[in-house]
Amino acid sequence: MTALVASRRDSLPLPGLLALAASGFLTILTEALPAGLLPQIAQGLTISQAMAGQMITIYALGSLLAAIPLTKATQHWPRRPLLLLAIAGFAGVNLVTALSSSYAVIMGARFLAGVSAGLLWALLAGYAGRMVPAHLQGRAIAIAMVGTPLALSIGLPAGTWLGALVGWRVSFGIMSGLTVLLVGWAWLTLPDFAGVRKSQSVSLVHVLTIPRVATTLLVTLGFVLAHNILYTYIAPFLAQVGMAAETGRVLLVFGVAALASIWVVGVLVDRHLHRLTMAAIVLFAVAALPLAFGGTSLVIYGGVVLWGLAFGGAATLFQTALAESAGHHADIAQSMIVTVWNLAIAGGGLAGGLILEGLGVKALAWSVMPLLLLSFYAARLSGRVKPDLDGISRM
Fold first, then answer.
1. Torsion angle of alpha carbons 289, 290, 293, 297, nearest 10°?
2. Which tens digit of pLDDT belongs to each residue from 226-255?
C-alpha cells in the first residue's frame, strides 16, 4: 500500500501537462509563423515585407502591455475558465487573420493574440506546478514548457512549408481549428484551481520583495537579452562567415540541441535547480566564444550546439525558480517574467541592430558577455538567499 501511494505521488498527470505544452506550442507558432511567410503575406495583402513583419512586433507589444495588468485583474478568477478563455482567444484571432483582407483588422487581431499570449504565459508555469506535488514541480513545468522549442524547431518549418504549399491563410485557418480542439482537450484533462483570495491580494512591489523574485527576473533579463542579440541577427552573422546558405540547417541544429536540453533539465531540475541555472549561463558564454572568434563551419556548429543546450531549458529553470519563490503569488510573478522576456526580445532586436550597424557583425557575440556576467552575478546572489519559512524558494 505504501509503495502504491508513493507511485501515485511520483506520477505526472501527462494528459493535462501535454495540453499545457500544446498551448505553448500554439502560442509560439501563432507569434512566429508570419516570419516564415512574409513574402506570401505581403503579396496577399499588397503591402511591403517590412509592413508584414510588424505582425510580429504588434503581437509582442500586446503581450508586453497586457501580461501584468491582465494577470493582476484576473487573479481572483478560477484558473481553468481563465486558461480556457486565453486559449480560445487564439481561435478567434487566427480565424480573423485567415479571412480578413484588411491589414488594419489583421493588425488588431494580432495585438489581441499578443494579449491572449501574455495572459497564457503568466498562467502556464504556475498551473503546471499546482498539478503535482512539490518535489515534481520542476519536471511538470519542463513538460509544460516543451511546446516552445517544438514550435520553433518543428512547428515553424512545417507551418512555413504548408503556407508555401497551400497559402498562408490556410495555415492560420488550420491553427484556428486546432485551437478549438485544444480547448476541448484542456477542458477534459486539466483540473480547476481557485484564484487568489481577496485577502491574499498583494501589490507588484510586494511580489518583487519576495526573496529571489527580483534576482530571478534579473537573471532572465540578461540571459534572454543576450540570446536575442545573437538569434535575431543569426542570418547576417552566418553570411559573414560564408554560411548564408546553411541558415535553416543551423537553426534546426539549435532547435534539436534545445530539445535535448529540455529533457536534461526536466530530469534534474527538481534536485539541482541552482546548479543547472549557473551551468546554463556558463555554457552560453562558452558557446559564444567560437561564434566570436569565427572559424570553420564545424566550429560554428559546435558553438550553436552548446548555445542550444544552454538556452533550451532556460525557460523551465527561470519559471520554476520564480514559481517556487513566489508561492501563492506565482501567477503575478510569472506575468512579470513574461514582461521581462518580451522586453528582452524587443531589446535584443534594437541593441543587436545598433551593434550590427555601429560595430559590425563580429561584435554581436562579444556583446553578450557583459549580459551573461550580469546574469551570473544575479544567479550567485540568488543562491545565497536563504529559503523562506514556507520552503517555497530553492534557487
1. -170
2. 998 888 777 778 888 888 778 778 878 888
- Both 45 and 106 in one domain: the answer is yes
Q: Is residue 151 part of a domain?
A: yes
Q: Which residue, 166, 201, 236, sits at the end of a domain?
A: 201
Residues 248, 186, single domain; the answer is no
User: What range does the domain containing 277 cover?
Assistant: 202-383
| Residue reference for cell 489583421 | 106
CB atoms within 10 A of CB 283: 18
Residue 316 near residue 223, CB atoms below 8 Å: no
Going from the C-alpha of 51 to that of each of 39, 159, 381, the distances in angstroms are 11, 20, 43
Q: Is residue 248 part of a domain?
A: yes
Identify how many contiguous H helices and E strands the chain contains and give both numbers: 18, 0
pLDDT at 385: 59
- Burial per residue of 181-194, b for 16 or more beta-carbon CB atoms within 10 angstroms, e otherwise: ebbebbeeebeeee
CA distance 153 to 255: 5
The rounded distance, in Å, linking the Cα atoms of 91 and 365 is: 39
> Are 157 and 256 in the same domain?
no
Give yes or no: residues 34 and 171 share one domain.
yes
Q: Which residues contact 352 (CB under 8 A, 6 or more apart)?
A: 228, 229, 230, 232, 233, 364, 367
At a CB cut-off of 8 Å and minimum separation 6, what does 2 contact?
A: none
Task: Judge if 342 and 229 occupy the same domain.
Answer: yes
Q: What is the pTM of this model?
A: 0.76
